Amino acid sequence: MQFHFLDWIAIGGYLVFALGVGIYLTKRASRSTGDFYLAGRSLTWWVAGTSLVATSFAADTPLVVSGWVRSSGISQNWLWWGAAVGGSLSFVCLAGWWRRLEVTTDAEVIECRYSGSAARFLRGFYGGYHAMVTNTVVLAWVLLAMLKLVRVILNLDDSSLDAWIVGGALVLALSYSFLSGLWGVVMTDLFQFALALFGAVLLAYKSVDALGGLTAARDAFRDLGPQTTDLMPTAINSETGEASPWTAVAWWTQGFGAFLIFTGVQGWLNKNADGGGAGVQRYSACKSEGHARGAALWFHLAHYCLRPWPWIIVGLASMQLVPTGDLSLIASSSGEMVPDYEEAYPRMMAMLLGPGLFGLLCASFLAAFMSTLDTHFNLGSAYLVNDLYRRFMRKEAKPTHYVWVGRFAEILIGILAGLFALSADSISNLFTFSLSLLGGVGPALLMRWFWWRANAWTELSALVTSTMLTMALNLTMFGASADLIDIPYPLSYLIVVGLSLAISLCVTMLTKPVDREHLRAFHDKVLPAGAWGVFGDGSRKRLRPILVGWAGGVALIYGLLFGIGGWVLGNNAWLPFAIAIVGALVLRWSWPRCAIAPTHETIE
Q: Could you tell me if residue 386 is inside a domain?
């Protein structure tokens, strides 16, 4: 595909806008770390929520989702759809609790919730770990996705220009994040989300049109078979296309067993179990608790119900329009050369879009790419400055000093992510590796809010166990033989979480509880729910509407997800939509009952 003048105008126009916003907001962001990292705690629900949606919509997501559709069918998306189970707790209660604490990062909560030297160490460790490891892995797969896109768009047959492509992408994303902090991030995110969503819908429309219209496209999708089009996992052998009994391992990694892990374990026991770094930053930046919960609700509805279907449509259409033989080959985790299914999406772009529209979609990918990178640059910098540098190295300095340290921290993080991206091959492998790395910490993250007995050693032991097990179960990523250890995902995730939970519970009961007065200060400020009986029975009463609201939120999200999917595929959609309506009514009933402000309740 050759670029035309109209294509360059579309891309250039977006870049001028993004850089202009960064320059315009530089002065405001430079006043303090509260402005640079939290936008002065003044965001409304729709701004913060849209910014979160844009952040999670990167250049990698359309490639991964459409690639999963080609390789494993629509049901493979339960790998991330399952997270809505636990994510619903964010808008029911957790987002409001984060806003009450008024922290800058999720690492800062460690010293609010726990006491002693273990808490100080854990906060500092989290700050460095999230900034330099987990955050860098996310940035790496986003950079890798952009690299794959550019290779296809420019018809590059080798990797000779990879370093220049990654370097240029980093400079673009750093340019306005460096200048304007979270102010620039959220303001550009609004435009980036609209542009990226429009581009995704445009390509989906063109894909359907290439198949002869919606009716013909639905017929073509049905011809692909239930293995591809069913939203729930089917017991169909991927090689023969026939129903067959699974082996014990295969059942837990490909069929309904995998679905159970995705929804029942990974769906709420994961690294973002209580909000996640980017989510906590947005909730903390909201002007009130209500706006924080509203931001979380809008994010989850848009993230799970609206965005996936354009990518899924393109993935299904690509199976008719892009032969597998036209895709490049990459090495699988076992070392076998397999088709790069993630390449299908950019090939559909090059095939279906003409001058101007092609440039517009490239600009939408650039917007999605930059919206994710700028968030993680800013967030990684916040960890280093707020939880390491200012907390342990230089406690007293002018606000502008910390802002400049944070800016240069973004550059360091960008360099590390770029080096990692240049050495990786598969976005999907990086994604599952990132999930597993901190998956075992998920139970501990929820225990901190719902069980008074949890302490810093609970999280520390879970963190160490989860990291060591993940490294051991992913040795092939580091050059080891596939015969050394071969437990496929998500069965490996179940093992990581199960062992981490068992060890962290044992460690909890063998170590001292948090200092009672320190714990009381946290309890009185947040008013958490659950097993906080040492401070009275109010926590148990607060748990009831939370559980009801949680169920309603899950029904709302999955009802809309299945309803929209049923309409797209030409199936009956009235029942899922009815479930969504019931879920919305239940959530509406519980919403005010889950928002009791600390000043309105007397602690017993």
A: yes
